[in-house]
Amino acid sequence: MNEFDVIEKYFLPLAPRGLDNDAAVLDIPPGRELVVTSDTLNAGTHFPADASAADIAHKGLRVNLSDLAAMGADPYAYQLNLAFPQKPEANWLEKFTAALVADQEAFGIFCSGGDTTRINGPLSISITALGLVPAGQALTRSGAQDGDLIFLSDAVGDALIGLRVLQSEIETADADHFKAAYFKPRPRLDLAENLRAHAHAAIDVSDGLVADLAHICRGSGLAAHVDLTKIPFSAPAQTLLDSGLVSHADLLTGGDDYVLLFAVPENKAPLFPQSHIIGRFQAGDPAVHIRDLSGAAMSFSSTGWTHF
Amino acid sequence: MNEFDVIEKYFLPLAPRGLDNDAAVLDIPPGRELVVTSDTLNAGTHFPADASAADIAHKGLRVNLSDLAAMGADPYAYQLNLAFPQKPEANWLEKFTAALVADQEAFGIFCSGGDTTRINGPLSISITALGLVPAGQALTRSGAQDGDLIFLSDAVGDALIGLRVLQSEIETADADHFKAAYFKPRPRLDLAENLRAHAHAAIDVSDGLVADLAHICRGSGLAAHVDLTKIPFSAPAQTLLDSGLVSHADLLTGGDDYVLLFAVPENKAPLFPQSHIIGRFQAGDPAVHIRDLSGAAMSFSSTGWTHF
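^ Those are the sequences you sent over. The predicted structure of the assembly is below.
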């Protein structure tokens, strides 16, 4: 089975409109703008080299979907670019594409094309996702206003713990919970419509809560005042916090959460009943201020992930 | 200088609309469809590991632009995904981005975003290019009709020779000519409007003339009859053919040409005066038939490039 056979057998089923041409042709409905985002994950850097085919597929697609959600966009199509260290095995391809098919159905997106290559190095998956948003309604990092409440859609920190579990740095009975948080983030596309209508700014937490909140602060020219007691952590994470195996600072700077952080005016707060109010944006130098359980200002040696 | 500083200093100048958000928001003019294509180039596989920053930039972007041209699309924006083996040096980044700026101006495209990552392996550049085409006018591989003439926009084979020169397999006084063909293909975007109006099918020659012509044959359900004497080769390539250092079969199957191959009805042939008529599509089993200089049928042990 050569490259073309692999594409026809395994990747064509992801692409209901075919993979026959040099490029895909996509119609954009009137009144919609296109939202475009890319994320690359490399084995050994972004996920353990022994990660399963399904986990790589889920994470590769979902981190992009999370970016679409943060923009208030609805998923449309994605380009799948895969670099393989050697010819991929049928079993691996079956599991990889089955996971993509499941996520395509779950999140309403299809594969519009991509490229399959060889690399003298680790597996690399680079996805560019396309979304649609009503014209003029895309969310940015720069729209937060003085007095807006800071919302967090979900608990943070589980993915960081998941990575430490995978690296055998932490042992816990909740290992599966944390590994799932690491490999299968849940992009909050269900929030997109409500965010478009009522939020002033949004971002997805990929670099860590502190770093991504700082992005909104810089974009919007505001200070963020956050109360640690209001930040949601999962019950399994709280157990590890209580036992001292992880710190709050770890969980606020670890990244890979792929939850949404957004700014909402106070009078619209009741419209986000499932999300968590963790603080408030206020006039001031663009910086993140977090009060710990005792009321003291927290400081962070590193605010989040960077590649170099 | 950390990752964010590198992005701000070197990549932000490529992106006139900013890189501030999780995704780019692009307007699509009414009556236009979006054309999307991706190509990944990995050091050591798609270009020599010691290739210059400028050469990698030119080739990475232009191979995508060639796909847009083959669809009859006008360039719009591109996502730039780079995986670096180590933190890139300032000098490398300056030359890489200067080459992209030059091509952005030459071809009318801008960077809409992307991702910059680390990889425990070779440099990888994966670009997804977006183009626009009047609705319903995109070209495909499947529209060729019985009797259409087969057109080739430019000479083929120079890039294959360029690769052999780079690999020190061929020595020639025209080395620079061939290396430029390999690293700086000229995407024929200037033909896009004319192709939309008058061509029935098109493809860019990336896998090799024989392989890509076979793609049109399969897509359109036609046989292709080609006369080797009509296929254009550059004067430097002809010199190497005459001296026996390369064969016609090499030049027809080498790939990396990024010229356009297209089907035009005979009565429209005068509208493509700069392109070369190399044969004709006719009813028959989808296959490529090439007559050599003596009139005998050529056969090929390999029809073109595949990754595995």
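The mean pLDDT of chain B is 95. The first strand of chain B starts at residue 24 and ends at 27.

Shout if you want it in another format.
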